[in-house]
Design goal:
With 215 residues, this protein is an alpha/beta fold.
């Protein structure tokens, strides 16, 4: 595969989606045309699964069922979007990927990590990120941001995860930081409390350092 695969991760309210869009705009200014995608929801099947997985009315979804639904989204996403993009040399920016499954369903829900890893391996095959941007911030700050956003937009249709208890989100953050500690060569950990322009600058500096022949 000749493309570049960058994922953006973080707890609720970390600002990863905003950062992804800002980085995409910066890459366009540099003459590149990145493909933006997300999980869940990067395909038609993924959009349908997203409506189930993030809907607060679906709070009774069991942990293992939740894992399998995310895996189904990923398997379709990899086959339909990610692998074709990488094989044609595109820069691919993805909002959440395998690390989210380990952090949320593994550390957060308590599913054994070897189970998570086995399921995820089947779903994603050979599609592994070249770089992962992790936006880290205190859980209370992130949840305040996320819940304020939902109130301001009067849209709670994707708030199922936001509404989990604080202890759950703390475990998720711990999971992300553990992953970053295990793979420092892949992860770029940023303080999500920084202003958006500074976060974009840090990602682009790292991008140029890692992929000097691209921009």
């Amino acid at each position: 595969m000749s493309g570049i695969f960058i994922t953006f991760e973080g707890i609720e309210g970390s600002g990863k989606s905003t950062l992804l869009y800002n980085v995409a705009a910066a890459l366009r200014r540099s003459g590149r045309d990145p493909l933006m995608t997300r999980e869940p929801g990067g395909t038609s099947l993924g959009l349908a699964l997203r409506k189930v997985l993030l809907n607060p009315e679906m709070e009774k979804i069991g942990s293992m069922a939740e894992l399998m639904l995310f895996a189904a989204d990923r398997a379709q996403h990899v086959a339909e979007v990610i692998l074709p993009a990488l094989e044609t040399g595109q820069i691919l920016l993805c909002d959440r990927y395998s690390d989210a499954t380990i952090a949320y369903q593994g550390y957060g829900r308590g599913i054994p990590l070897d189970v998570i890893t086995a399921v995820d391996r089947q779903a994603r095959g050979t599609a592994e990120p070249h770089m992962t941007v992790l936006l880290d911030l205190p859980v209370d700050t992130g949840l305040t941001r996320a819940r304020t956003r939902n109130d301001e937009t009067s849209d709670s249709s994707e708030s199922r995860i936001d509404e989990e208890e604080m202890a759950f989100h703390r475990k998720v953050r711990e999971g992300y930081l553990a992953l970053a500690h295990e793979e420092p060569e892949r992860f770029l950990v940023l303080d999500a409390r920084e202003v958006p322009d500074r976060l974009e600058e840090q990602v682009m500096d790292e991008f140029r350092s890692r992929f000097p022949d691209v921009i």
